[in-house]
Amino acid sequence: MTTAVPTPDLASRTLELVDVRSESRVEAEAMALVRALLPGEPLYDDGEAIVWGLPTAPVVLAGHLDTVPEQGNLPGRISDDAVHGLGASDMKGGVAVMLELARAGAEARFLFFTREEVALEESPLPAMFESGVLDGAELAVVLEPTDCALHAGCLGNIQARVDFHGESAHSARPWTGRNAIHALVEGLAPLASLSPLDVELDGLIYREVVSVVRVEGGIAANVVPALAAAELNFRYAPGRSRDEAEARLRELVPAGELHVLHNSPAARPALGNPLVERLRELVPELAPKQAWTPVAQFAEQGIDAINYGPGATAYAHRVDEQVPVPNLHTAYDVLARFLT
Length: 340
Description:
eight-stranded mixed sheet, 2 domains, about 350 residues, alpha+beta, Alpha-Beta Plaits
């Protein structure tokens, strides 16, 4: 059993978590640390998700243990009133807050899980939901980085590939073929000039954006290419279903052959939930979540959810990732009062 952190020392707990490597798909050691720190038996533990706490508590606190790949930012350190290191902001600072609230006996259900920083299809949450361990939950607070503000809802996220076909030929006689790269340039031109689409929900403005994030094509300098492809990322606003978002993306690139690789749903703000209204009394700062988070997975299960955590959004996934120590204490104090 790991020695208890006094009073609590949230910075030291965060650093302890940071120094346990837990890149997506290799989180077993971090999950073992969580098990060791939680007093008593969990309500659910399949190795990829742990639920601990009061089985009938209306509030669920949720946080993922995995990180993006290391960028030379391990081991971590505490300096300049911040915890520095891989995952400090996204979201081991939030997990540290959860652990210390659990150890202090806060009345909630606590969900710790893996594989959030990868494709939705790898998420362990569907199996956990199916178990019924969160039945009766009225609100999930996901401790993603929000700088201790409330971030409501989230954008949907489509990753897609679009193929453009041509006909190969000698580059000295290009008129005898059809250049797939030229077709790609023409087909993607409307995206390059597309402005963000502002969508208002409950007084919050979500911005729909489409980005070309990768381009491939060509086999040699003297060959007109027969195939070119681009990867697209479409962040769509709450209010669009997955199918509607895919249809919209096909409208934007009608010339190509579109293949949707991943589609993670959006989530509405859920500001009418009485527990959210109570949390807003403690945290008046409110913004739309201009990203995807697991609040969408809770929303699909009929559980309202909101983002609130100590992580610094500006430092998430960066080589200089860090979380301010005062943020850790603010998040802990707010959630302790909210759960009381």
